[in-house]
């Protein structure tokens, strides 16, 4: 059975290459984003069985506090913008003084409109990696930044 264009648009998954990243409201181009995970730590409870029905303790695993998200953002180095974007942010960090920023990663449809957004709350950089330099390669120079955040929220448009 043939599907109409509107049926395909609502029934098929969105491609992962059509996304937009905003750091504190400013659009920044990244070639790869990973670590958008919502995770909970777990805790184990042990209690004695009631009435001696089972030998040994009863073990239960339960959810605990949320795990702190760690994101990795990768982008090509571009003259006059790369240093201002990522290096300035991480170099401004001092002990107990950091500028935390909200980051939005927006998955877009074919028109470029956001369909789903991941809001990364209070993110701050923990690591900035320079590209790997190889004389025998002609690949683009890619820098990588790791961020830690308080939480990730998912918003549907």
UniProtKB/TrEMBL annotation:
Signal peptide: none annotated. Pfam families: Phage_T4_gp19. InterPro entries: CHP02241 (IPR011747), Phage_T4_Gp19 (IPR010667). PANTHER family: CONSERVED HYPOTHETICAL PHAGE TAIL PROTEIN. This is Phage tail protein.
């Amino acid at each position: 059975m043939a599907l109409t264009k509107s049926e395909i648009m609502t029934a098929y998954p969105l491609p992962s290459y059509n996304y937009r990243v905003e750091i504190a409201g400013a659009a920044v181009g990244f070639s790869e984003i990973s670590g958008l995970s919502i995770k909970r730590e777990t805790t184990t409870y042990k209690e004695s069985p009631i009435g001696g029905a089972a030998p040994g303790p009863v073990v239960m695993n339960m959810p605990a506090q949320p795990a702190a998200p760690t994101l990795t953002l990768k982008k090509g180095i571009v003259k006059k913008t790369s240093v201002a974007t990522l290096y300035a942010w991480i170099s401004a960090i001092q002990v107990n003084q950091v500028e935390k920023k909200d980051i939005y990663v927006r998955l877009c449809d074919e028109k470029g409109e956001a369909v789903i957004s991941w809001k990364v709350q209070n993110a701050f950089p923990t690591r900035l990696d320079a590209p790997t330099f190889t004389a025998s390669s002609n690949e683009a120079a890619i820098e990588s930044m790791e961020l830690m955040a308080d939480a990730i929220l998912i918003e549907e448009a």
